[in-house]
Amino acid sequence: MHIDFLDQTRSVQSDYIDLLQQVIIFTAKQEGISSEAEISINFVDNNEIKELNRNYRQKDEPTDVISFAMQETVEGEPEIVGEDIPLTLGDIVISVDKAKEQAAEYNHSLERELCFLAVHGFLHLLGYDHINKEDEEIMFTRQDEILGGFGIER
User: Fold this and answer.
1) Confidence of residue 86 (pLDDT cuts 50, 70, 90)
2) DSSP classification of residue 71
3) What is the pLDDT of residues 3-35, one digit of tens each?
4) Per residue in 91-125, is it b (16+ CB within 10 Å) or e — as a string?
5) Alpha helices of the chain — where are they, by DSSP H?
6) What residues are paired with 94 via a beta bridge?
7) Closest listed residue to residue 116, CA positions, set 150, 88, 91, 89
8) Between vectors from CA 151 to CA 22 and to CA 105, what angle results, nearest 5°?
9) Is the alpha carbon torsion for 48, 112, 124, 69 positive or negative?
10) Whole-model pTM above 0.85?
């Protein structure tokens, strides 16, 4: 799996990036995703994610993670198919500021919070959601299974 990391904050330690790469690859294997798939993970501050949240979700506040799935199709949109075309799943944007706030609030490490947010964002790229209670239970149970299987507990 190819993961492109971009740290606009210049604050995420390389150890965290290595760990996030491992947890995403682990998640991809658990979900049966091709090793040829591609995603990007972008680290931003609260101001940047607030702007994205306002522009794409009409919520004028910072959030912890936003995912932009590339595999969702819109009615009338042509399907692009081909053996030579890599499976581009999409982009995950994580607020480092929010991750730090939430790690302190939940009394766990920044490492755990970043892993949680990366897996959460990745599952959104794969089609999981938490719009209603039933979907939320499915997604959150899967997150816990993956994080626990990787060795990251609450």
Assistant:
1) low
2) S
3) 999 999 999 999 999 999 999 999 999 999 999
4) bbbbbbbbbeebbeeeeeebbbbbbbbbbbbbbbb
5) 14-30, 46-57, 96-105, 110-125, 133-150
6) 43, 65
7) 150
8) 95
9) positive
10) yes
Q: What is the secondary structure of 93-114 as a DSSP string?
A: EEEHHHHHHHHHHTTS-HHHHH
Full strand arrangement of the beta sheet holding 65-69? 2-7, 38-44, 88-95, 65-69
Tokens of 136: 């939320």
As a whole number, mean pLDDT of residues 99-127 equals 97
In the chain, domain spans: 2-150
Residues 6 or more apart from 38 whose CB is under 8 A from it?
Answer: 1, 2, 3, 4, 86, 87, 88, 89
CA 107 vs. chain centroid, Å, equals: 21
Contacts of 76 (CB under 8 A, 6+ apart): none
49, with CB counted inside 10 A (0-12, 13-18, 19+), is buried
CA distance 67 to 43: 12
Q: Which residue has the tokens 């919070």?
A: 113
Q: Which fold has domain 2-150?
A: Collagenase (Catalytic Domain) (3.40.390)
d(CA 8, CA 76): 35
